[in-house]
Amino acid sequence: MVKGRNVKSNKKVTTDDHERSKNFLSNTEVKDLLEASKQSRYPIRNYLLLLMMYRHGLRVSEVINLKLTDVNLKESRLWVERLKNSLSVEHPIVGDELRAIKRYLRSRKDNLPWLFINERNLPLTRQAVNYIVKAAADKTDIKNVHPHTLRHSCGFYLANKGYDLRLIQDYLGHRDPKHTVNYTRVVSSRFEKLWG
């Protein structure tokens, strides 16, 4: 018997990102999740929350820190204050999202600075966002959905549309392209014309 370290293979460490199971939602799954969010106690807020997390690739910490001043309704722009040493950037807000923001703001009866608040007029917590995402996912047949799945889904959507790596990197605020390349590596659109 050889004395020494007891070395075990750690699958998480030895497995490349592209060999892991699917960690993003298809367009249809995103639509189903958004529809399911409307079947909640706060349908207007929860729908907008999930839509913005998906459209802007927001982390939970970024979405709960959004302020009303980050939303420019006149110019249809959102200032995304990226965390985790990522690059902050301004994103456009498209029509359906702009309408959802206006609908949500009309439903508010306060002057609080945060974009997303709870029934006690406090900003949403990480736990609340986790609960909202899980509750919407539970109303669908989609498994293993968590808030970061929406960020990954944003990256995969952009990659599948054929946008270049640098654009996706800037949009998601990645400083290092190695984080972005995971999205472009497995997109199905790259393989479309192989057999036709």
UniProtKB/TrEMBL annotation:
Region (Disordered): 1-21
Biased composition range(s): Basic residues: 1-11
Domain Tyr recombinase: 20-196
Keyword rRNA processing attached: no
Pfam families: Phage_integrase (PF00589)
Keywords: DNA recombination, Fimbrium biogenesis, Transcription, Transcription regulation
Family: Belongs to the 'phage' integrase family.
Name of the molecule in the record: Integrase
